[in-house]
Amino acid sequence: MKRVLLAVLLVLLAGAAAWWGWRRFRPPPPSPPPVDLTQHDGQTIDFSSGRPVVKDTAAERAALEKTAAEMADAAQGVTFDAPKKKAEAPPAPPARK
Q1: Residue 65, Cα to own-chain centre: how many angstroms?
Q2: pTM for the whole thing?
Q3: Cα dist. 47→37, 44, 50, 52, 56 in Å?
Q4: Is residue 93 pLDDT above 90, yes or no?
Q5: What are the tens digits of pLDDT across the range 5-44?
Q6: Residues 6+ away with beta carbon under 8 Å from 42
Q7: What CA–CA distance (Å, rounded) separates 94 from 71?
Q8: Distance (Å, rounded) from C-alpha 42 to C-alpha 65?
Q9: What residues are paired with 46 via a beta bridge?
């Protein structure tokens, strides 16, 4: 009777170890192919879900055109000064006595 109990416990222990190893070291699930984000002129790419989702609706296009027009109006009168020359290096500190 003791041998049968010991054999059952060993089989259960081996099964638990195999299950743990399978759960712990199994390969990750395949990831979906990446979305090509360079070829979507005039389309909106939404990252709010954590993944890129390309949207192409009339409302998205209208919002995109409105925003582009607002940005062009805001940048119309913006100018930048020429970069200033760098100042000469400060003089070396006096030597201590």
Answers
A1: 27
A2: 0.41
A3: 11, 10, 5, 5, 14
A4: no
A5: 999 999 999 999 999 988 888 888 888 787 777 777 778 8
A6: 56, 61, 64
A7: 53
A8: 9
A9: 53
> Residue 50 carries which side chain, given as an amino acid letter?
G
Amino acid at 11: V
- Spatial separation of the C-alpha atoms in residues 13 and 20, rounded to whole Å: 10
CB within 8 Å of 64: residues ≥ 6 apart: 42, 44
Q: Report the C-alpha gap between 20 and 70 in whole angstroms.
A: 58
Range 66-79 average pLDDT:
92
Residues listed for the chain: 97
* pLDDT tier for residue 96 given thresholds of 50, 70 and 90: confident
Three-state secondary structure string covering the chain = CHHHHHHHHHHHHHHHHHHHHHHHHCCCCCCCCCCCCCCCCCCEEECCCCCCEEECCHHHHHHHHHHHHHHHHHHCCCCCCCCCCCCCCCCCCCCCC
